[in-house]
Request: fold
Amino acid sequence: MEWLTFAFLGTVFFTVAGVLDKLLLSSYTDDSNAYIVCQVLASQLFTIPVFLIVGANFVYPQSLIALLFGSLQVFPSFFYMKALQIEETSKVTALEYVYPLFVFIGSALLLGEVLELKHCVGGLLLLVGTLLISYKKKGSGSSGLYSNRSNSNSLNSISFLSSLSPAIKPFLSYWVLTAVYYLSLKYLLISIDEWNLYLWSSLGSLMVVLPLMGIRSIRSEVKGFFSKGGLAVGALISEETFQFLGIIFSIFAYAIGSVTLVSSVGALQPIMTVILILGLGILMPKLAKAMNEKTDWSSLKQKGISFMVVAIGIYFIS
Reply:
């Protein structure tokens, strides 16, 4: 069960990184694209030492494929950050983990992993949990279609769909691209080791964001971010530290475990996010308030039910 330890620790580190992402986007920049550029630039603080200590082995064509998919990995980040700007962190992380459904289907079709009935039930529960967590009640930004209790069933269905989180839209592309990335990651780990996969992927990400610096608005925003002082830069480096640890532990988990099972463990992140935010609310109320996370009883009850459904789904998939 070594893969489970790596997968769980990776999820913990990704949880902390996600909370820091929300704080940084709320406090220091309004441009999510520029923030991603800042992230990739800061991540080189970890890539360079890995290169110097471990070295880089070029394996054809796997290294080129890792470079390509490292480039593609950046694009889901644009959708993720966009969603993070318009929705609560716990809901964004819940929506994020619909991608295991696509991993599950892809692993069965491409990697020969066996589809059992309990796995299908688990996937369905993950989807139901996601719909529950993204549902917005009357008074929380819905379109007002709930005022008439005598609406027909058809109208109620339309009302339900219209009340889902607006973050779902940017996640449609995120789910597919992320699933493709993790499926290719499992394939690449057959031929190259974990550290070289990280190095080539990181280089691919850097190749994508550097041209973005040619856009004046993004270049100006990036310079502005790094000129905001030690607190902003320190927070970014802290976020990238947790992100780096999450990536490394996840890569090792995928190397020795089933791609479906490792992806499913990540669905625990929304629960961990709420726990972390509640802890911040007690220890640092002002910091927690800046995240605009709803912690009233009604919201917590909705999230709790959703997370329980997700947890049961994970159990069936694993």
In short: Residues 138-162 have pLDDT under 50 and may be disordered.
